[in-house]
Sequence to fold (527 residues):
Amino acid sequence: MAMTARQRAKVSLYVQAGIFVVAVAAVILAVDWKTIGTSVFNFSKIGPMFPDIFLVGLKNTLIYTALAFVVGLSGGLLLALMKLSSFPLYRWLATGYIEFFRGVPALLVFIAFGYGVPLAFGVQWDVNIVVMVSLGMVASAYIAETLRAGLQAVPKGQMEAARSLGMPHWRAMISIVIPQAFKIVLPPLTNEIILLTKDSSLIYVLGLTASQYELTKFGRDGISSLGAGLTPLLVAGAFYLVITIPLSLLARKFESRSARTKR
Amino acid sequence: MNNSTGSTATVQAAGVNIKDLRKSYGSNEVLKGISLTVEPGQVVCLIGPSGSGKSTLLRCVNLLEQPNGGTINVGEFEATDPDVDLNRMRRNVGMVFQHFNLFPHLSVLDNCTISQSKVLKRSKSEAAEVARHNLERVGLGHLADRFPDQLSGGQQQRVAIARALSMDPQLMLFDEPTSALDPETVGDVLAVMRKLAQEGMTMLVVTHEMGFAREVADRVVFMDAGVVVEEGPAENVISAPTQPRTKEFLRRVLDPTHIDVVED
Fold:
């Protein structure tokens, strides 16, 4: 049977809507709503989480993320420049570092610096330092690749024009190439912060004192103490969204702005 | 040396002396022993088919490309000396690119001041004064506060010329400065270049604008396949070429619709 393009589009739309209705019906029928009500959406018992999850948990998540990002950005810039260096050893070192820390789970890095270093060297780091080192080192690897791509995305003619005006290479990098690269990497860098925000939850593997708790730790504690099932995790998750959704919107804004100025 | 206030025509002009210049990319030799002299104050146009090596030759003069052999002298500098102070030499050599290469994150004025302040260490006010003066010279003083992407191609190229002039160069290199422009803006750029030539600037120009070459150039050099095929006074090379390859090239450039008839 031959159909016109319009008829085919109509049928396609009906089929997709049908699949959706069937899927929703299956979920509604399959789920045990009573249990869900007491163990996932049980908001009557979560009162004790407030205001600490907000005043301590959210604050600490933001602090840990910020610390890791500062280390990640400086380390990442250094690694990116090493990767573009004319000295081969620097390139190999940077490549080795990046491949290693991108390939290893962040959780293992946390354990290595949280438990391994005290065991091996007998020093006990402050939690803030452990976060800066472990999450910062992982972030450096990812951010390095983002920055390298940004630096290489600046047209070669920019460097040539700057050198033709008598600028030394380092001056051309600082005044001409890096400012342009920074604009290019703003959206992907914002995404890195979102990833870092979520990865900061891995800190729960360390022994934390109450004042060091971040959002995920609050959620896990709530599970065992409040008797509301998984509801506390749902609350913690909502707080992550409070941080990450505005960042996503910001990244999108940067993207549309750079798309507009690009020629 | 020269004054640093950027006034017109008082900067001393430098000449260029190229001897047996060779350049290869891998096994592909693009310059096969080029010798060329530009006297101080002279305008020399390089013409030839694309791929003939004329842009590479120009880019070798300020060492954007590293030659494989031969020598280049620019004024008092020996560019091909491995110990030459490259940054110092390049201050004296202005370069204008086919695609302008303005700095998009800086205003028109800042494009013209950044190297003055960072390289020549001029004060902010002095750099701005020099920049404004040179923007006036190219007829764009009123656009100093715009950004490059707010300008037409022809305006951007004139800003690029003002940017180069703001360093008080003794020599200007032009790499196909009008090839990326809309036809109606080509004239403005050529007018600026003509004025510069009249003011006594040494200019080495890669161009396809035969009218400009015939009118402004002291000498025209025709290159093909990495060698200089013919050179001489502009009138001779363009109006009365002696070499068959020059004749063929000029016939195609000056009358593109003629191609079908040429193939006999």
About this structure: The two ends of chain B are 59 Å apart (CA to CA).
